[in-house]
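Collaborator request, handled under Task 6.
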Amino acid sequence: MSIDDHLEFRLLKYIVAIAEAGTFTAAAARLHVSQSALSTQIRTLEDVLGIRVFDREHRTTLTRAGKVLLRYGKEGLKTRKHIVQTIQAIHAGRMTHLRLGFTPFVHKSTLRSVSEIYKELIPDSGIIPESGDNEELTNRIRQDDLDVALLTLPIASDDLQINVLERERMVVCMRADDPLADYDEVPAAALNEKVSIFTYQRHHPAAYAQLMEMFNEIGVTLRPCRPTMNIDHIQWMVREGICYSVIQAGRPLVNGLVTRPIAGVDWTFDTALVAKVEHSNSALSLLIEEVAKHFRQPAGMSEKRPVASVGVRKPARRAGNSPNDHQLGLFGIESE
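Structure tokens returned to the collaborator:
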């Protein structure tokens, strides 16, 4: 037997119980084993692995190694529960197709990745993809008419579980020969009454309202425009020099167009996998766990963020002198 084989799932369950109960005696009562047997098995594991899980001189405080095992144990217990419930549902014929919603703002590659993850988790499973607006899809989730949806933040989320998958920087689209294209970052004042937001007005009014507020806070009034989801039309208007447009950094551009971030801020479009906090779909729970691993975000990043995360950075430029240089310091927004 290798050293790895000694870390049995049963022992992870013991570690979780001891950590939650606070003492070996209380954990033994919960697990229906004797205190001496529990202590012996943990001590044997520690000796085999050459570590200490608990600092017994400080009332069974977890060591650094113990904290790692505790987290792994909790995740393992939760996943095992969902797996058991899922296979029981399959055996009993209660497994239904996953009803997956998505908005027009979600990349096809993201929708494809989530679908493929689910099919790998639950072989021979079915998915019913349905498109709609944010408000429509969130209401359907609350009414149990939809299992989960890929949405763009912000949304009203008191009763919803939000798992941020992707963050794309918000940038300004312009002609390649525009004077502002000489800058690494566009001065905010240069965009006043010249930049438009075409895609959010009709299909995600909450995001549009928040973006208007954010631009207002950096001293920029948006240029009025009629809403459209036709990306080709938007880029044609930019190429004709009619306006600048706010878009996602990863959006493909036609020839003659470039994008630049706005100086002094760092805003992102956030895509999240959204489901009810309280749901009984074990297969959905497995999907949420696996999707979170696949799209893992940097540690410490909040799971509940608005349409944009905002930070202050020193503006930079490539060449030229802006008449608004003296104003750049006024357009910073404090981080959340």
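The cover message to the collaborator said: "The two ends are 51 Å apart (CA to CA). Strands lie at 54-55, 61-62, 98-102, 127-131, 148-152, 160-175, 195-196, 244-248, 257-260, 268-276. Please let us know whether this matches your experimental observations."
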